[in-house]
Write a structure and sequence with these properties.
disordered N terminus; single chain; globular; Neuraminidase; 50% strand; 293 residues
Length: 293
């Protein structure tokens, strides 16, 4: 979920952004490029050649082999936030974007090569997080009547289906590679923790248990691992994932159990809101930040 969607909130928040990758086997962090404003939420393309991120309401492509940066044309959709997901076939991208009229986030699809967007969710706000492996369904967090829950909708649009109805915040839905499960994060047990449910919303099971607030469980392409971001208890409200905090990136098995810390950094909002695994499940991409003096 990204609640910053209007013009003022898209402005630079006084940080430098560092686009990074992390090799999980060696533990090596590689800084690819530093930006003098805010970029967020890299996706790794299916061919392994590019990282896709948002910057000032637009979507950009970073070429890993050359460092070249190019915008992706998205027509009148120029309020893109950090909730964007690539299609399973790597041909399309779905984005969440606010509008200048009401500032509310809605979901659109467009060609990854650039093109005119198609509105998928007239209902707002809607914050995209998942695309089913069969390419037919989008999963997202939606606020309806003051309550944030997880919804799905056909990729061509239509009627949305509500999957959760807890009294707290349910957010960050993402499909497992086999399409059987949806991972999400929820405050239903107190702190923000990772959960997993069947793709139809049934049988929710808590998957992380500790005294941190854990957000955005991203499943590796091989289905074996989960990477997520954690805020220290008491450092944030349980239903918020703000920027400019000391956070940890953590790794655990998709079967649950213990986790290990794989990186500590200054970040939070924008660091790893969307799935950023490399296609070979060996690396992740993320954004860290540095305050301007």
């Amino acid at each position: 979920m990204q609640v910053l969607t209007n013009r003022r909130q898209m402005e630079d928040r006084g940080v430098y952004s560092i686009l990074e990758t992390l090799d999980l086997e060696s533990g090596q962090r590689t800084a690819l490029r530093e930006f003098d404003d805010t970029i967020e939420a890299p996706n790794w393309t299916k061919d392994g050649k590019y990282l896709i991120y948002n910057r000032a309401g637009r979507i950009y492509r970073y070429e890993l082999s050359t460092g070249a940066v190019n915008p992706i044309y998205s027509g009148a959709v120029t309020g893109c936030n950090n909730d964007h997901v690539l299609s399973p076939d790597g041909v399309s991208i779905a984005v969440s974007s606010g509008t200048w009229e009401d500032g509310q986030s809605r979901i659109y699809t467009l060609p990854l090569a650039g093109g005119e967007p198609t509105l998928i969710t007239p209902m707002a706000p809607s914050y995209l997080h998942g695309w089913s492996p069969d390419g037919r369904t989008l999963a997202y967090c939606g606020e309806r009547n003051g309550q944030y829950d997880i919804y799905t909708i056909p990729v061509w649009g239509g009627r949305e289906t509500r999957l959760t109805s807890s009294s707290g915040l349910d957010d960050g839905p993402e499909y497992s590679p086999d399409g059987r499960h949806i991972w999400f994060n929820s405050t239903r047990s107190g702190l923000m923790q990772l959960w997993r449910m069947e793709a139809d919303g049934s049988d929710p099971v808590q998957m992380s248990f500790d005294e941190s607030n854990n957000w955005f469980g991203h499943v590796s392409p091989d289905g074996e691992k989960i990477v997520f971001i954690s805020y220290k208890k008491g450092d944030v409200e349980i239903d918020k994932h703000p920027p400019n905090k000391n956070v940890q990136l953590r790794l655990m098995s998709s079967r649950g159990g213990d986790f290990k810390v794989i990186a500590e950094l200054f970040g939070g909002q924008g660091t790893i809101n969307v799935n950023s695994w490399s296609p070979d499940s060996r690396r992740i991409a993320f954004v860290s930040y540095r305050l301007k003096k």
